[in-house]
Amino acid sequence: MTPVSSIRVKKRDGREVPFDQGKIADALYRAARAVGGGDRLLSEELASVVALYVEREWKDKTPTIDDISDLIEKVLIETGHARTAKAYILERDRRNRIRASLRVRRDERGVALGASPAATGPKVDARTHGTIATWSKAKIVEALVTEAELPPPLAEEIAGEVERRVFGSGLTRISTTLIRALVDNELFERGHDKFLNRQTVLGLPRFDLDRLARAGFDADRDVTLAGRALHDAVAANLWTQYALLEVVPQDAADLHMAGTLHVGGLAAPTLMQEIDLDLGGAAATAADDDAVLAWRSIVREATHVASERIRIRGLDKALLPRFANGFAPDVAARRLVAALTEPRSSALEPRVSVVLPLAPSTSAHDLARARGLERDAARAAWHEFTTSWLRAVAARRETATVPECVVELGGDHDDAWGVVEQAVVHEGVPGSVRFVLADDSLFSPALAAPLASRVHVDVAQAAFRAHRFDPDMVIASVQDAVDAALSACEARTRYLERLVGVANPREALRAFGVPATAPRHEIALAGLDAACRIVFDQSAATSDRAAAFVKSLVERVGARVAAGAKERRLAVSTAITHDADVLERFGEIDFARHARGRDLHGVAHDGRAYVYGAGVLALADDCEPTAAARVESGVRALLTAPTTLPVLHATASDRVLFLREFVALRRKA
Fold it and tell me: What 3 state SS string does 240-306 have?
């Protein structure tokens, strides 16, 4: 006789599970209670009798659930428990009728809990897919095992209890939303909270989605959306929810929602935030017009890999040889700007930034000289191209999204201050022109690697939490936030490593000539000037005490980042944030908690003139160009990433004075 422990039972959905005598006892006990009984020991004895029948009659084949039910009825009748047998038969018939009539509406996911087209029983009405499937407890078990990662026995137990509640409710129609709620309730009541997040349904409230669809207006981002951008906005909302649950560690996610951190790239966790495209070697032998179209095609394809920014480099190497062959610099600028300009509706796509060095690189000069274009002529042609670029961008930016111009200050460019003065005039327009310092130490090969994530740290919030006049407490608080930021960077790397095939952006990067090396990360500090005003009672970052504090903060944070990156085997750089949206978000959060928060962050709500100093916002009347340049130079010497040089004053003369002073200080250093 086959031992009952080795016998398996075939379920209605075709699965085979071990024979469970305890479930037989439970069913007998429920039937007895229905007729006024309730002897648990007797139920267990009768269950052992059923087990004996199973061992004897099913030793060479697999019984079905219905076979076991028939045995239970037989044992009850033969042992003189007719009333209990009748109650069991009636309950069995009731459950079969419910199973045959209950319809489950699939209203949230492509695969619904309880959906099994091949199974018999309750129907599943999948409204979003126009199909009807049948009730299947097995699908609930499968979802709990694969989605919530429950052990199979526990999943079977949870699913059985959910089925009992559904069948006992008297409902003839039920949605997967309610089924999931019942599952979550069972998990919670049994103390299995850790599995709940895996079952979380992501989505938008119907009201919000309806408002977006009807008006096309995203109040949170203060933008009007239409066409494809509207669909992208909904997708970004869902991906952000997913990233905060599945990609970002809990401590970093909590700090992000509290406004202590701003974790970038949440709306597209499967993409790189930024990538660099070197066009110096692309379309090298193509005709001028064909080369421009080829470059445009490369940039358009790169939008599928980068979520926020595509940075184009190497145009000096690509264009100087063409200038030697007669390609006019002004024509080249107009055609490139036209090729890289997009309609306004593409606001949610990655921004294109074109890096234009004031002085062409040595390799670009060598390529031009090989075509007969000498150094002075090459520099003049390049300056003409840069100024033509600025004019072409200015002519289009009112009606379209134009490529941003990133001007590299570095190298031998003493003859290019005229270009700088023109760039400063355009710099006042957001997203038009930025200046960065092109130190060789900053633009290393490591920084050419794709940027997987950038995490911003709100220094001002740390200052609000610390005691007044206690810089060390502020720095300690910022370092704690940096630790959480490093955890977020590590988690993003691990998540990207789990993506396989075409889902892994590093595979796609090879097609663009981008090194498919391990991605890098950046931790950027925000609100330095606001923190100085909090800690030192309205002293700007250009004051001696505040400047010393800022330098100490950046130095100690940099050391913390370097140590944490080495421990985690990550490439992480430090920078000062220039992201206006991030600064505004931090300002709004701090303003909601602290009366002076928004004022200190520099959101211009009171009519006062705000300018930049030490990489952050400052008031115009307490910041001199030379003083700000000294602070900038000292701080940026400690950074490991090229960060935008801040606008100082609205007047071009003050701005140029700042840049001249800054470059002179950096050269001395």
Answer: HHHHHHHHCCHHHHHHHHHCCEEECCCCCCCCEEEEEEECCCCCCCCCHHHHHHHHHHHHHHHCCCE
Q: Are 542 and 609 in contact (CB under 8 A)?
A: no
**Residues in contact with 17: Cβ distance below 8 Å, sequence separation at least 6, in sequence order:** 8, 9, 11, 156
The tokens describing 211, both together, are 């408002």
Q: What is the mean pLDDT of residues 438-458?
A: 76
User: Is there a contact between 248 and 438 (Cβ–Cβ < 8 Å)?
Assistant: no
**Per-residue pLDDT at 217 exceeds 60:** no
Range from 209-223, 474-488, 549-563 carrying the lowest mean pLDDT: 209-223
pLDDT of residue 46: 86
- Please tell me the distance from the alpha carbon of residue 592 to that of residue 514, in angstroms, as a whole number: 43
Model confidence at 77: pLDDT above 50: yes
- With a CB cutoff of 8 Å and minimum separation 6, the contacts of 385 are 319, 323, 329, 330, 332, 333
Decide yes or no: CATH 3.20.20 for domain 272-437: yes
Domain boundaries, the chain: 4-98, 102-195, 272-437
Amino acid at site 610: Y
- In this structure, the strands spanning 520-526 and 571-576 are parallel
Q: Which of the four pLDDT bands, split at 50, 70 and 90, describes residue 4? A: low
Dist. CA 9–CA 21, nearest whole Å: 11
DSSP state of 615: T
- Looking at residue 525, what is its pLDDT? 93
Backbone angles phi, psi at 509, to 5 degrees: -65, -30
Instruction: Say which amino acid occupies 378.
Output: A
- Helix (H) or strand (E) run with residue 617 in it: strand 616-619
The C-alpha atoms of residue 159 and residue 139 are separated, in whole angstroms, by 9
Parallel, antiparallel or unpaired: strands 123-126 and 103-105: parallel
**Single pTM value for the model:** 0.72
Mean pLDDT of 29-35: 81
* Gap between the Cα atoms of 13 and 89, Å rounded: 21
What pLDDT, on a 0 to 100 scale, did the predictor assign at position 119? 36
* Rounded CA separation 435/533 (Å): 26
What is the average pLDDT value for the chain, to the nearest integer?
A: 79
Asked if 509 and 273 touch (Cβ cutoff 8 Å), the reply is no
pLDDT number for residue 604: 42
Query: How many of the other CB atoms lie within 10 Å of CB of 325?
Result: 10
Decide: helix, strand or coil at residue 625: helix
**Residue 425 CB neighbour total at 10 angstroms:** 14
